């Protein structure tokens, strides 16, 4: 599909669950994209979103085949990501999907190959690394603020989902768990800052064999069996030579670990939660006190979510807007399918290493995403 600077990428959303609200709310902020229709296996859900955002509700199959749609935004559950994305690619549509690209790296590889064969764009969340905090950290790294990266830590720790989700058991089965569910945010941010990962080692365990659901709902007070590790400590070896300890756990009540800290030959850099677009980024030069930069006043860093009482920045659609511009410029989108596949390969390798006790070589590599400069970020706004 050809596109000029005067055209908008016409987007059809498949999957009208809670995450679709953020995408639909943010779409008007960006140049070159327009959500025109939506579909869901639950027709009523599609009708509700269509009415709220002045869209056209459609059947899933009809939407994928619609010649008036240029790109499918795949917001279905992870188990449906591969099927919907592949159907869209075979129908000649560009695709941007929520994470993960597929539930297995084999699925992700098929999607990347299919997009390449058909000369279509394939992009994937997370795009949080393109937010204000991620861009500021990337500028610091590019400027040599910490010198050559040597080591670091990344931690995603908490008590899991059963205290707030009324039916959380799927989070604790194969294909999910803290590595697959939250790992994409941390790993994507680190690949953005330091390039691809070449090898991993890991140990894995679970704190409890069964979990008690305490969230309100019909299953409150019931238990379910855990089918995947809930605490995994891994060691990541990057092509650049840096080694980072990456810990994920849903067995922790309280901790004081920072989300990401990177240490180099000239200093250290501390990043906020990579699941967010904004937050404070702190730099220590050669042991000096931390100097923190609050990115909330920067582009794509201001709090805007949740709607009722905003306390964080959420600019989902940013990666898709960059993909739309990539079509015009005939370049690789920053939140690309290749990047998502590499991260998926790393997550599978972490789990395999935790299961076998054997270090795993990552079967893919990827070019470090191009830095999103401030003028480029601003040009994506409508």
Low-pLDDT stretches are 1-6
What's the gyration radius in Å? 20 Å
Q: How many strands, which pairing sense, and closed or not: the largest β-sheet?
A: 9 strands, mixed
SS-based structural class?
alpha/beta
**Distance linking N and C termini:** 22 Å
Sketch the topology as an H/E string, one letter per element. EHEHEHEHEHEHEHEEEEEEEEEHHEH
In helices, the fraction of residues equals: 25-40%
- Count of DSSP E strands? 17
Our count of helices gives 10
Mean pLDDT score: 95
The gross shape turns out to be globular
Tell me the fraction of residues in β-strands, as a range: 15-25%
Strand order of the largest sheet: 16-15-14-13-7-12-11-8-17
Structure description:
The protein is of the alpha/beta class and 382 residues long. Helices cover 31% and strands 23% of the residues. The chain is built from ten helices and 17 strands. The protein has a nine-stranded mixed β-sheet with strand order 16-15-14-13-7-12-11-8-17. Strand 15 (280-285) and strand 16 (291-294) form a beta hairpin. It starts with 8 loop residues before the first strand and ends with a helix. 49% of the residues are buried. The model is unreliable at 1-6 (pLDDT under 50).
């Amino acid at each position: 599909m050809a596109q000029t600077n005067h055209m908008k990428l016409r987007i059809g959303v498949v999957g009208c669950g809670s995450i679709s609200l953020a995408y639909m709310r943010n779409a008007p902020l960006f140049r070159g994209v327009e959500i025109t229709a939506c579909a869901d296996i639950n027709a009523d859900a599609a009708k509700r979103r269509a009415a709220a955002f002045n869209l056209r509700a459609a059947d899933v199959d009809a939407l994928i085949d619609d010649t008036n749609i240029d790109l499918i935004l795949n917001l279905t559950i992870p188990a449906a990501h591969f099927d919907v994305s592949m159907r869209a690619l075979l129908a000649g549509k560009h695709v941007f999907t929520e994470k993960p690209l597929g539930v297995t790296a084999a699925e992700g590889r098929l999607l990347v190959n299919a997009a390449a064969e058909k000369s279509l764009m394939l992009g994937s969340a997370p795009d949080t690394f393109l937010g204000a905090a991620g861009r500021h950290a990337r500028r610091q790294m590019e400027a040599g603020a910490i010198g050559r990266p040597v080591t670091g830590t990344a931690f995603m720790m908490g008590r899991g989902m059963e205290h707030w989700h009324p039916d959380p058991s799927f989070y604790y089965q194969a294909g999910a768990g803290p590595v697959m569910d939250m790992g994409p945010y941390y790993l994507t941010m680190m690949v953005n800052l330091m390039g691809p990962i070449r090898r991993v080692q890991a140990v894995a365990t679970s704190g409890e064999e069964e979990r008690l659901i305490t969230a309100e709902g019909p299953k409150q007070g019931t238990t379910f069996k855990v089918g995947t590790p809930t605490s995994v400590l891994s060691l990541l070896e990057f092509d650049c030579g840096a080694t980072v300890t990456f810990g994920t756990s849903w067995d922790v009540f309280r901790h004081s670990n920072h989300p990401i800290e990177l240490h180099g030959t000239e200093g250290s850099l501390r990043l906020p939660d990579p699941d967010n677009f904004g937050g404070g980024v702190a730099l220590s030069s050669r042991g000096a006190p931390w100097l923190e930069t609050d990115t909330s006043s920067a582009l794509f860093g201001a709090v805007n979510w949740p709607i009722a009482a905003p306390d964080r920045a959420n600019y989902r659609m940013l990666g898709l807007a960059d993909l739309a511009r990539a079509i015009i410029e005939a370049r690789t989108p920053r939140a690309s399918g290749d990047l998502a596949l590499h991260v998926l390969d790393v997550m599978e390798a972490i789990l395999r290493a935790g299961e076998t006790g054997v270090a795993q070589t990552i079967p893919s590599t990827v070019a470090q995403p191009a830095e999103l400069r401030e003028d480029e970020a601003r040009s994506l706004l409508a």
